[in-house]
Fold this sequence. Notes:
With 325 residues, the protein is of the alpha+beta class. The protein folds into 3 domains: 3-132, Immunoglobulins (Immunoglobulin-like), CATH 2.60.40; 140-206, no CATH class; 211-317, no CATH class. It is built from 7 helices and 21 strands. α4 (208-215) crosses α7 (311-319).
Amino acid sequence: MNRWLVIAVVVLSGLGSVRFASAAGNSFTVALSPNSGPTGTTVTITGQGAEPVSTVYVLWTPWFSGESCGPQPRDAELVAQVSADNQGAFTATHHAQQLPNYGNDSWEGIIYLAKTTVAGSEITSNYVCFRFTGMASSDVQYFPETGHSVGHGFLRYWQQFGGLPIFGYPITDEMQENGLTVQYFERARFEWHPGSDPARYDVELGLVGVEAAQTFGLYHIAVFAPLFVLPATPASRSDCSYFAATQHNLCGGFRAYWEKFGGLAIFGYPISEEFVQDPSSGEVVQYFERARFEWHPGTNSARYDVELGLVGARAFQFHHPTLSP
């Protein structure tokens, strides 16, 4: 089994078997739009017939030349874990991308299906297929390091506002979460808010620093408390700034990094003071709404010896505890 298929097994291990099986003879069905186009096309998978407000897993696998559009003897990848609405309908989107990890097989396109549970039994939808035609889209980039692609506005935002040092590699494809199109990265969550800010591709960054701090149970410790509840005042050092919005200071190299590499839009306000989170390592960190700064002396003076923690991965675990990125 190649690396991509190993990832598929890990991601979907909470679903039981995800081998393709014959579609169930029921009203749980999916449809696809469009059904053809170049690799990199964004497709929309819509479905109906799930139990109201139930969890649905939308899946894909390659459609190789010479195969029928139907069940195949290989594992499927997760497109999205979505919730059906009150009528049992659901929607997901996916970049239909031909990937190199499956070897030299000739791709006809991609097969999509969905799985859910009804009355305690797992059921599978019909199969729908997207056929590759025309020239490949140049607006999608595949990252072999994690086996995921980034496209369109998310890709342009990633490239323009920080790239790998700020956001890390993608750890999911685009997916639906609480009615939003989102994508998780090692250090961030991109959220698409149509019409909100065209200059920034309508992308906003999720509060993954807040969510990571919650998963670590840090909000009860003193360094996260607003300064007005403690016998302390804003720092008087010339290399410090005090943020009244969250009642915290930002000083030294952390402030220099914050100001140079993104500021409020990328990192958000500080939500803690500097502190040592892990006494065994002695590493100094500070949490922000959208990031965790880590001080690694002598590693990279051009970036003030600051590295960003993997809070995007931590936030993914927070929202999807039964899945692995």
